[in-house]
Amino acid sequence: QEQLVESGGGLVLPGGSLRLSCTAYRSIANILYMGWYRQAPGKQRELVAGITHGDNTDYAASVKGRFTISRDSAKNTVYLQMNSLKPEDTAVYYCNIQNFARSYWGQGTQVTVSS
Questions:
Q1: What is the DSSP string of 68-110?
Q2: Closest CA to 80 of 59, 62, 98
Q3: 106 near 52, Cβ under 8 Å?
Q4: Residue 51 CA to chain centroid, in angstroms?
Q5: Is the Cβ–Cβ distance between 99 and 30 less than 8 Å?
Q6: Distance (Å, rounded) from C-alpha 113 to C-alpha 101?
Q7: Residues 77, 22: Cα–Cα separation, whole Å
Q8: Please, which residues bridge with residue 81 across strands?
């Protein structure tokens, strides 16, 4: 029942960069929060980065200084710019958008950082 579509994942060398995009093609009204989560094999899903209605951001300690979350409300899109990627960033990344009524999830996009 995912309502969002992610793109931009793939295979990248350590130290490389990727930009993930997440779009709600059927627009979501009254968005409060947009975030990126990830889940690596054998681990629980964790919050990577989030951005609020007021454009406040928060990041997992492991990605601070390397990842940047941003949004384009007119396009119903949230982005995650990932720089200086490390093997431990390898995971399936999921987009999440929340409004007053419910939470929406994407299907996930694989990011693999390997030499």
A1: EEEEEGGGTEEEEEE-S--GGG-EEEEEEEEESS-EEEB--EE
A2: 59
A3: no
A4: 10
A5: yes
A6: 36
A7: 5
A8: 19, 68
From CA 53, how far away is CA 45, in angstroms rounded? 23
What is the full per-residue pLDDT of the chain (115 aa) written as tens digits?
558 999 999 999 999 999 999 998 888 888 899 999 999 999 999 999 999 988 999 999 999 999 999 999 888 899 999 999 999 999 999 999 999 999 999 999 999 999 9
Interatomic CA distance for residues 38 and 108, integer angstroms: 8
Strand-pair partners of 97: 34, 104
